[in-house]
Amino acid sequence: MSFNTFGHLFRFTTWGESHGPALGVVVDGCPPGLPISEEAIQRDLDRRKPGQSRFTTQRREDDQVRILSGTFIDEADGVLKTTGTPISLMIENTDQRSKDYSEIKDKYRPGHADFTYHQKYGIRDYKGSGRASARETAARVAAGAIARAALPGVTIRASLVQIGPHKIDYARFDWDQVDQNPFFCADPVAAKAWELYLDGIRKDGNSVGAVIEVVAEGVPPGWGAPIYGKLSADLASAMMSINAVKGVEIGAGFEAAALTGIDNADEMRAGPAAPYFTSNKAGGILGGISNGDPVVVRFAVKPTSSIISPRLSVTTANEDTEVITKGRHDPCVGIRAVPVGEAMMALVLADHYLRHRGQTGREGGIGY
Amino acid sequence: MSFNTFGHLFRFTTWGESHGPALGVVVDGCPPGLPISEEAIQRDLDRRKPGQSRFTTQRREDDQVRILSGTFIDEADGVLKTTGTPISLMIENTDQRSKDYSEIKDKYRPGHADFTYHQKYGIRDYKGSGRASARETAARVAAGAIARAALPGVTIRASLVQIGPHKIDYARFDWDQVDQNPFFCADPVAAKAWELYLDGIRKDGNSVGAVIEVVAEGVPPGWGAPIYGKLSADLASAMMSINAVKGVEIGAGFEAAALTGIDNADEMRAGPAAPYFTSNKAGGILGGISNGDPVVVRFAVKPTSSIISPRLSVTTANEDTEVITKGRHDPCVGIRAVPVGEAMMALVLADHYLRHRGQTGREGGIGY
Amino acid sequence: MSFNTFGHLFRFTTWGESHGPALGVVVDGCPPGLPISEEAIQRDLDRRKPGQSRFTTQRREDDQVRILSGTFIDEADGVLKTTGTPISLMIENTDQRSKDYSEIKDKYRPGHADFTYHQKYGIRDYKGSGRASARETAARVAAGAIARAALPGVTIRASLVQIGPHKIDYARFDWDQVDQNPFFCADPVAAKAWELYLDGIRKDGNSVGAVIEVVAEGVPPGWGAPIYGKLSADLASAMMSINAVKGVEIGAGFEAAALTGIDNADEMRAGPAAPYFTSNKAGGILGGISNGDPVVVRFAVKPTSSIISPRLSVTTANEDTEVITKGRHDPCVGIRAVPVGEAMMALVLADHYLRHRGQTGREGGIGY
Amino acid sequence: MSFNTFGHLFRFTTWGESHGPALGVVVDGCPPGLPISEEAIQRDLDRRKPGQSRFTTQRREDDQVRILSGTFIDEADGVLKTTGTPISLMIENTDQRSKDYSEIKDKYRPGHADFTYHQKYGIRDYKGSGRASARETAARVAAGAIARAALPGVTIRASLVQIGPHKIDYARFDWDQVDQNPFFCADPVAAKAWELYLDGIRKDGNSVGAVIEVVAEGVPPGWGAPIYGKLSADLASAMMSINAVKGVEIGAGFEAAALTGIDNADEMRAGPAAPYFTSNKAGGILGGISNGDPVVVRFAVKPTSSIISPRLSVTTANEDTEVITKGRHDPCVGIRAVPVGEAMMALVLADHYLRHRGQTGREGGIGY
Question: N or C: at which end does chain A have fewer Cβ atoms within 10 angstroms?
């Protein structure tokens, strides 16, 4: 969790800019002997890929992943498996068309990181967004596919649950719907309504925010650790590190603030083999440690700041100006953040799984 | 950010349980030559100390801090200063009265970490909450006082902005009010109204959640770093690591999800020396890097799970039962989380300040 | 391994100066449920304690350790055990007699860290050596006792194998002799001869260096990891971090440079259950990973720089001078480094054990 | 310093095997605005490249480096510079000729890491050495070229000072000779004599060890930090992490053990602007912190274990056998370790430089 590396035992380091030759990720600490394949990684990458509907950027990025290290073909079964050493994944940038940057060359884009990058590094790199490009999230998704392979028995899924002011109806929540609409939305009725709404936003040269919910089922009790190694703290860091994210909550989240202790507590009952909770306001985490219930995280994505409507801005010489950000931008970056949220959940869990196993010698709680 | 340590260059490690002889913190990486004193640390600790009004637990904890290492008296001016080596701070536990634990000895408390600790560590330590006790936050507050000393020019303040469903009116926001009421609330009218509300909660043997807002002014542009070292990501981790916190947001936070790009972008204007933003929806952070505006973080605290109303639960032998948590618990743990939030803000900023200076050789942005 | 913390999963942080009220260590990441006791820690501390023979400093330091956190009494068997949360150990400084520092107040001591501390921190703290005092090693020894408890089946022992130019005869090597002489020396004949030699050194107001060999038996194959997580690299860092250490070697060490591949390779033979090596030039480590043979490390300790013979030096005002370091210093700091070396070996192994178990789910190699 | 990552603020992560498509390194935390070029990196790589004399392996590896990220062309001067974000460097493997591995498929090579990798990871990857291949050091050398650019005023050079039992004569030490002979040896007379010696070793199908000395001049006082962040401890870890290294020493190193305090102490004298030392037994480091003198490190490389002379070994089925390692192996891997040692010195210093600047705000000591 230092600059471009995330995780402790299962850790990954991403690199690359949208306007360079390639981007990639190095996954370190992966258990040996796990079957992985470029195809499985590609499946996850393809879900994040732009240009799949009119609601995402029309840039063409093939996002073709290559495994450069850390695997071998097991002669016993002919399957590609991890060796336990660093897995290097690379995605070449293929759509580096020469753009006209004259509009933004000397102008900061409001709400964009180009001002703060300039301040921090003393560098004015107006061509593309450098590391601030959402393209970096492709590397996370690739790493997340490896993390999933390291988490047998855990199912991680995500859904867009809000776009602009429009929320889903949880009564209609159906995971099977997520890949049936361009919004990764578990509520098919909401997804249908959102099409019209987002068409309007897009045609106005505007953009809009969103909320994504990520759920991990099958996490045993015992992962996570007090105090600064809380599962919730690492999930908060993980989700907040995604581009444009401004809020993260676990379980009932901010709504818990409005509840009383009587209403908020998840009561317990004796189960056939172990106790269970009658509700999951906790989002599967108590005291920073998983309790066996689904781990539930939501994060808020702000509307993309790159819009073609003119905004007041300033030149690099500190003079008032207006700026219009042309180019092929997502009207709602939150949509493509859905597979990214899944990946970050997988990456956090894989790390905590190994850390828990390291300290206790168990896979999960005392009965696991 | 590994188990009980937080931070990279400016880092701290906390230890201790509420029912042991003491608790404490080791602060490492602090710049040398900073004036600090037990008095200054004590001032911050006294704000967090329980028993200061009827709205916090009536436990008596003196929270008297001792500096055990890392300082020297400068013979030039007679002032106690940091040496640059680890500063060890210890707080002895003085109110370890022998309690009757028979009620909870064999029963899990719903919403409490005792179930997950038992699962993780295989240990049933029903006396007190072990590391899950909010008493650990005293160590953070002590460390935070050191961090403040390392941040000249930065002012960090916090306010309770919501208790249960009742929010403050930002039109009445006045920092000078914060220490004038038992809620650390910047809105005096709200604070007055809350007294009645919380008296009711308390008399019902219930508890309630809260939202805290922390603001850091004077942070120069340039602190923080892409991608996993984002200032926002570390703040999210820091706040989420506080007991009972279930949500964190920066600037407009979850509200940004409902906004359009036109409404959400903070426009820029030329200032006398440097550009400024006409609004602060970003909460002072763009692309994970501070932009010179106040850094604004809010976090949601759930209602304490330890309430005297009976709740359905399970015994350690997996049999249905009911549990009542007696003892002197806070009806709203969010109140005492206010100084804790300030401390965590200071600790994150001090780390990012040093990391930025290390990488760039500058104190802040290109003009700083 | 950042400033005052060492280790990854099993990690510890030390604090304190020789002239402050106390020093201590926080051990984090320890497996839960391990029996530990102040008595067991004290036994190791007492071996390091000064004043046990005329060959170590005559300072009286009781080095009485207190466990402040991280343990509980298991009601099932009445035994004190680790909880899995931070174990804080404190040793109060009892012999802080007011000394006359006028001789060294304004003079650097050649070969001593006071010059570099002054340069680094801008602080001239001539009273004691601050963190550079060998007294810090008491904290390591205390932590090492916890590490030993986390390493069942592993036996760690050390011996002084050279003092000044005088080496032991390995033909006489007998671990049972180590605690029978004031040098922790496995060769009783050498130990006898060294008494006379070191008496001479001491009477001359001089000091002398030493070499310590540390051996860990019972380490299974598989601990350690390529490339920067090599067991050998962490052992090198661990031993080099001990005061006055200027060299570290594994197995044949520097002698391996003079050998040919034919002479240096440890050949293998089939054993009853697994292969074994016919020699151990590798010191139990191949490619940074343990091979099942005893792990063998040697480290060189320079002669203490604090001697009463006058040495050319410089004042803090950069004027030529002479300096004599009075006080009660060890004529050979290497002697008391023996238990410190054992502790560092235990601490490195405990960390690698947990890291290996975390990544692979195994306690050792494929057959383990 | 966790598995495949080294460093804290200036850190790098290597990946890749000798028999995969490529290997590489990601350098993170580099200061922005530093001029770098593929040419400069290539120059260092070419010194490490095999096949440059008959004394190194005849494998043909072009070791052509590509910069994939983290740089931009400064429009002001047309120079390629670092952006401050991760620098990804890749070297494709070009000489992956299909070899006949039947000899070693089921046999462990004595002294080689294949046994321990098999034990640790449960994987038998007999084709090449995986991560244990010395080819990984190309990635370090590439990273080291970046580190050099981050260290203005520091000159880092290295020399082979011993090969087998034959040491150089320091009276003839001349840095200008290092690139004039196939041994990177500063003593031209020794280098000449070594040719005959190593020809004999090579013709015998044998191999031999070596000692390398690395010297950094221009390091200001103040870099490094107590206790586990000692410059010496990180250098020990860095050098010990190089393939086949079995010993590391600083300054007088193991010889210091044989000296008395009178003989070992570097005395000080007043210089024109600051004190200086009349000798450098300390190797430029006191208390883990640089003292302004040249930093001097030596490390011992064992003879390569891959030799064509038959050695007793064991099959993977635990049966006695003999093994001959054919292929194109270095008769003395120590030769090509010379530029690797320089790189590791640069990488350690760059990290400590930034850490020191972060904590203190200074570039070096109090006068710097």
Answer: C
